Amino acid sequence: MFAQINDQNLYYEVKGEGRPLLMIHGNTEDHTIFNEAAEVLKEHFTVYLLDSRGHGQSGKVKEIHYEQMADDVAEFLKQLDLHDAVYYGFSDGGIIGLLLASRTDRVSQMILSGTNITPDGVVPWLRKLVKVLYFFSRDPRMKMVLEEPHISPEELQAIKIKTTVVAGEKDAVTYEETKIIADNIPDAKLIIIPGAGHGSYIVHKAEIADLILEETK
Predict the structure, then answer these.
(1) Which candidate, 53, 84, 49, places its Cα nearest to that of 66?
(2) What is the pLDDT of residue 1?
(3) What is the pLDDT of residues 45-55, one digit of tens each?
(4) Paired residues of 144 in beta bridges
């Protein structure tokens, strides 16, 4: 299905029934990374799988920013009239979640995996790789990763909904960055998954479904 959101035509799929659960993927990915998890979660939630602007089957862009994508999700929730939603965001999806919290009261709980709040919050090798990829591709999504986000501790402290901050022990986001997020969001829970990488427990894995179910009991 498609929804006209702000200036974009965004693609989404819906599975199951129950409390709304919105799942947002990472950079250069699309909703299909959650297919396996959604098969489990649809027995407990109405799962909304959205392709962010410039990704998947959604409209292409010449320029892209996290603030725009957060505005898109806020409008998506409004258009579909969703309330008391659980938001799950992976990587870029986590960044969008942090920005979304100040834009809507339709989300009552967030679970964020592998999320950074500054461009330098990722491990050095990844930042170098993205610079090389952008040099050759001029992909606006790579440019965004190099220049954004810039989320302050004060913005994190203003988040009042139940939040779980998750990262792998070997995540591409530094532990220090993850800890800053968890320490500044009031009453946030921090989960570090032993031995896990950035997306090893998420991308085409049902394992993330078990974590979501546990955190939303």
Answers:
(1) 53
(2) 96
(3) 999 999 999 99
(4) none
Residues with Cβ within 8 Å of 214's Cβ and at least 6 positions away in sequence, in order, are none
- Note whether 14 and 20 are within 8 A (CB): no
Contact status, residue 130 vs residue 145, Cβ threshold 8 Å: yes
On the 0-12 / 13-18 / 19+ scale of CB atoms within 10 A, 154 is: exposed
Sheet containing 19-24: order of strands:
2-5, 8-16, 45-50, 19-24, 85-90, 107-113, 162-168, 189-193
Q: Which two structure tokens, joined as six digits, stand for 168?
A: 């792998």
Largest interatomic CA distance in the chain: 46
H or E element that contains 166? strand 162-168
pLDDT tens column, 152-182:
999 999 999 999 999 999 999 999 999 999 9
Taking the complete model, does pTM exceed 0.90, yes or no? yes
Amino acid at 206: A
Q: Three-class SS of residue 191?
A: strand
What is the DSSP secondary-structure string of 62-83?
SS--HHHHHHHHHHHHHHTT--
Say how far apart CA 129 and CA 144 lie, in whole Å: 14
Contact by Cβ (8 Å): 162, 82: no
Q: Where are the domains of the chain?
A: 2-215
With residue 107 as reference, give the H or E element that holds it: strand 107-113
Amino acid at 162: K
Q: For 2-215, CATH number?
A: 3.40.50.1820
Two structure tokens written together for 207: 């394992």
At residue 181, the 3 state secondary structure works out as: helix
